[in-house]
Amino acid sequence: MRIVLVGPPGAGKGTQAAFLAKNLSIPHISTGDLFRANISQQTELGKLAKSYMDAGNLVPDEVTIGMARDRMAQPDAANGFLLDGFPRNVSQAEALDEALKSDSVKLDAVLDLEVPEDEVVKRIAGRRICRNDSAHVFHVEYKQPKTEGVCDACGGELYQRGDDKEETVRTRLEVYHSETEPIIDHYRAQGLVVTISALGEVADVTERAMAALQKSA
Ligand code: AMP
């Protein structure tokens, strides 16, 4: 299956993407994770991306689209993928449409995770992520690790993403509304959008998402 995951920052896209990709045996492709990997390896791309990310803005399309396409061209993505955080604006969605068309393949679904805005801010401000694996996500209130600052799953150090600080979250939400939400209409016109609530336990949201994807397949 070829799936795009959309939703505001804090909707749990990364967490859900990891479970869904595993259930569906397709790679989880997160442009945010690709940028963060470039930042920790101190590549030129990482240096460029960092200033945009720290401010809560989108990294320019010229670099983002190329990076996403390179990743999608890897052999493990030949029969499907789950895109998390890409496309993030209409021109990226158009670039993806073209790339898929030239490979003679199609998206199967665009899964839209819905969360009320006040919940989003609460979720992100308390979010702590494992340095070893961004799918290991904790929360200072809702999902405390057994030992403060240490990942239950692998012992990695937990940290707050620089762009999870409250003032940056506000910018990211504005960017989501103005830039990313319009892609939902873009895909609605193609009959691809399935919307589910992202509230509740992680496992319940995964179940809801799997049921919605099976219906749309
Ligand atoms: P995420 O991990 O998906 O929340 O992404 C973190 C940050 O990476 C975003 O706030 C953007 O600065 C940048 N980013 C990730 N994906 C994209 C994209 N498709 N286009 C532009 N910037 C992106």
UniProtKB/TrEMBL annotation:
<dbReference type="InterPro" id="IPR006259">
    <property type="entry name" value="Adenyl_kin_sub"/>
</dbReference>
<feature type="binding site">
    <location>
        <position position="31"/>
    </location>
    <ligand>
        <name>AMP</name>
    </ligand>
</feature>
<comment type="pathway">
    <text>Purine metabolism; AMP biosynthesis via salvage pathway; AMP from ADP: step 1/1.</text>
</comment>
<dbReference type="GO" id="GO:0004017">
    <property type="term" value="F:AMP kinase activity"/>
</dbReference>
<dbReference type="InterPro" id="IPR036193">
    <property type="entry name" value="ADK_active_lid_dom_sf"/>
</dbReference>
<feature type="binding site">
    <location>
        <begin position="57"/>
        <end position="59"/>
    </location>
    <ligand>
        <name>AMP</name>
    </ligand>
</feature>
<feature type="domain" description="Adenylate kinase active site lid">
    <location>
        <begin position="127"/>
        <end position="163"/>
    </location>
</feature>
<keyword id="KW-0067">ATP-binding</keyword>
<feature type="binding site">
    <location>
        <position position="172"/>
    </location>
    <ligand>
        <name>AMP</name>
    </ligand>
</feature>
<protein>
    <recommendedName>
        <fullName>Adenylate kinase</fullName>
        <ecNumber>2.7.4.3</ecNumber>
    </recommendedName>
</protein>
<comment type="subunit">
    <text>Monomer.</text>
</comment>
<keyword id="KW-0963">Cytoplasm</keyword>
<feature type="binding site">
    <location>
        <position position="127"/>
    </location>
    <ligand>
        <name>ATP</name>
    </ligand>
</feature>
<feature type="binding site">
    <location>
        <position position="92"/>
    </location>
    <ligand>
        <name>AMP</name>
    </ligand>
</feature>
<dbReference type="Pfam" id="PF00406">
    <property type="entry name" value="ADK"/>
</dbReference>
<feature type="binding site">
    <location>
        <begin position="10"/>
        <end position="15"/>
    </location>
    <ligand>
        <name>ATP</name>
    </ligand>
</feature>
<feature type="binding site">
    <location>
        <position position="200"/>
    </location>
    <ligand>
        <name>ATP</name>
    </ligand>
</feature>
<feature type="binding site">
    <location>
        <begin position="85"/>
        <end position="88"/>
    </location>
    <ligand>
        <name>AMP</name>
    </ligand>
</feature>
<feature type="binding site">
    <location>
        <position position="36"/>
    </location>
    <ligand>
        <name>AMP</name>
    </ligand>
</feature>
<keyword id="KW-0547">Nucleotide-binding</keyword>
<dbReference type="InterPro" id="IPR000850">
    <property type="entry name" value="Adenylat/UMP-CMP_kin"/>
</dbReference>
<feature type="binding site">
    <location>
        <begin position="137"/>
        <end position="138"/>
    </location>
    <ligand>
        <name>ATP</name>
    </ligand>
</feature>
<dbReference type="InterPro" id="IPR033690">
    <property type="entry name" value="Adenylat_kinase_CS"/>
</dbReference>
<keyword id="KW-0545">Nucleotide biosynthesis</keyword>
<feature type="binding site">
    <location>
        <position position="161"/>
    </location>
    <ligand>
        <name>AMP</name>
    </ligand>
</feature>
<keyword id="KW-0808">Transferase</keyword>
<comment type="similarity">
    <text>Belongs to the adenylate kinase family.</text>
</comment>
<dbReference type="Pfam" id="PF05191">
    <property type="entry name" value="ADK_lid"/>
</dbReference>
<comment type="function">
    <text>Catalyzes the reversible transfer of the terminal phosphate group between ATP and AMP. Plays an important role in cellular energy homeostasis and in adenine nucleotide metabolism.</text>
</comment>
<dbReference type="InterPro" id="IPR007862">
    <property type="entry name" value="Adenylate_kinase_lid-dom"/>
</dbReference>
<keyword id="KW-0418">Kinase</keyword>
<dbReference type="InterPro" id="IPR027417">
    <property type="entry name" value="P-loop_NTPase"/>
</dbReference>
<feature type="region of interest" description="NMP">
    <location>
        <begin position="30"/>
        <end position="59"/>
    </location>
</feature>
